[in-house]
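Most newcomers find our protein records easier to grasp once they have seen one. Each record describes a single protein and holds just a pair of labelled lines. A learned vocabulary of local backbone shapes supplies the integers on the structure line. Nothing more is needed to start thinking about how sequence determines fold. The record below serves as our worked example for the rest of this section.
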Amino acid sequence: MALTKSDIVAAVHELGFTKKKSVDIIETLLEIIKSSLEKKEDVLISGFGKFCVKDKNKRRGRNPATGEDLILRERRVVTFKCSGKLRKKINGSF
């Protein structure tokens, strides 16, 4: 099951903030992250990871439904690399 924005708002609300303030905090945080990524700035959250925007060149592709060859246009993608701390925490249970 995925963690949703509503779940995060509820967790902030449990810290003692009003529901409206909790929503405002999360919305503001997400807007700051989106704004930085739109400007191609990396977002580094210590102990969590780093979001980066990468440019992808155009390339040849294939429509899986028809098998037709096509050219995929240049685009930007967001990538995430988790921190060593997060990686250890995730893999610590194995």
Remarks:
- The chain has a mean pLDDT of 96.
- Residues 41-94 form a domain with the HU Protein; Chain A fold (CATH 4.10.520.10).
- The chain is about 40% helix and 30% strand.
- The first strand starts at residue 43 and ends at 45.
